[in-house]
Amino acid sequence: MTRRTTLRMGGPARWLAQPEDEKSLATLMRSLTPGTPGLALGGGSNMLVADEGFDGIMLDLTAKMNDIQKHAAEGGEWLIRVGGGASTRTVSHYSRRNGLSGLEFLAGIPGSVGGALKMNAGAYGSEMQNVLVWAELIDVHGQCHRRPVEALGLGYRKSAIPDGWIVASTLLRLHRDDPERIRRRIREMNQKRRRSQPLRYPSAGSVFKNPPEGPLAWELIDRAGLRGASEGAVQISEQHSNFFINRGGARTRDMLALIDCARERVLAESGVRLELELKVIGSGGVRRDL
Ligand SMILES: Cc1cc2nc3c(=O)[nH]c(=O)nc-3n(C[C@H](O)[C@H](O)[C@H](O)COP(=O)(O)OP(=O)(O)OC[C@H]3O[C@@H](n4cnc5c(N)ncnc54)[C@H](O)[C@@H]3O)c2cc1C
């Protein structure tokens, strides 16, 4: 998984499938031996995979299930139907070119639309919850469910979409705006990002969620004196203390050790227990014990 995650670490998945469409994805899910761990893989930009790898099937939707279709809606709004594997950046720039506003925030978030929905990804005051109408999900038995946004339990960097269910398709609601104004907004967001984030190094973005109140996660890590700290080839970025970067050939065990260290030191220093934003994938699937 080093080649399929933005952290560039982790052992191999046993199988990788790139389904052609919803029907073949559903057929594949139905044909798996019950109990086989299966997980959707988007851009791998929020995943930390164990050094031992993942003993199951990674379902990569980015290869084929990535189409975008535009439909007119009432009241000057537009709907776009987007495959779960579509790249967030591609969809954001598609919208800009078509004079559709609402997805500016996705231009700087790596990964896929399915992954963005699972994580309710967001930035600069917008998140997936604000634009989603419904999603089509394939469950572990290959059954398809169309769920409206209210039924997906979307909150700060979380959803109630069960691990192992796949976001096959989404319907997003956008509104008309001048492409030039949209472009300017995207540029401003990207400039802010470049100023504050270590984008030259492999990372998974923010490692921890910001606590519901009080100082932000990076401030807590700073206060614990950990800016720049490292374990093996993993380092807490000098530029942004909630980004842990791979300085070359890093191992997942080092990343986990640094995560533990940051948590312990922040708890001791500030009394706050930091919650992971990153999904840690063990040999049997998403680890919930971390
Ligand atoms: C430099 C950088 C900056 C970032 N900035 C931000 C930011 O500003 N805001 C933000 O919210 N996040 C940010 N992130 C984190 C990450 O990009 C988002 O969480 C992103 O939405 C994850 O999408 P993905 O397709 O890469 O998911 P993956 O990493 O592939 O998967 C993450 C989780 O989603 C699941 N998943 C993936 N695809 C699907 C699918 N089709 N159906 C169901 N489940 C699926 C996976 O099984 C896994 O549990 C950043 C990351 C990086 C590297």
Account of the 3D structure:
- This protein is α+β, with helices and mostly antiparallel strands and 290 residues long.
- Helices cover 24% and strands 26% of the residues.
- The chain is built from six helices and 17 strands.
- The protein has helices at 22-31, 88-97, 113-119, 179-196, 217-223, 252-270, and strands spanning 13-17, 38-41, 47-49, 54-60, 68-72, 77-83, 100-101, 122-123, 126-127, 132-138, 144-148, 166-176, 230-231, 234-236, 244-246, 279-282, 285-286.
- The mean pLDDT is 97.
Features:
alpha+beta; 17 strands; six-stranded antiparallel β-sheet; three-stranded parallel β-sheet; Uridine Diphospho-n-acetylenolpyruvylglucosamine Reductase, domain 1; 290 residues; Uridine Diphospho-n-acetylenolpyruvylglucosamine Reductase, domain 3
Question: Helical proportion?
Answer: 10-25%
In round numbers, the mean pLDDT is: 97
| Number of helical elements | 6
Q: Stretches where pLDDT falls below 50 for ≥5 residues?
A: none
The CATH top-level class label of the domain at 68-196? Alpha Beta
The arrangement of helices and strands along the chain is EHEEEEEHEHEEEEEHHEEEHEE
The percentage of residues in β strands lies in 25-35%
Bound molecules: flavin-adenine dinucleotide
CATH architecture designation of the domain at 68-196: 2-Layer Sandwich
CATH topology of the domain at 68-196: Uridine Diphospho-n-acetylenolpyruvylglucosamine Reductase, domain 3
Largest sheet: number of strands, sense, barrel closure: 6 strands, antiparallel
Query: Which assembly state applies to the chains in this document?
Result: single chain
Specify the overall morphology.
globular
Radius of gyration in whole Å, from Cα?
Answer: 19 Å
Secondary-structure-derived class: alpha+beta
Taking the alpha carbons of the first and last residues, their distance comes to 20 Å
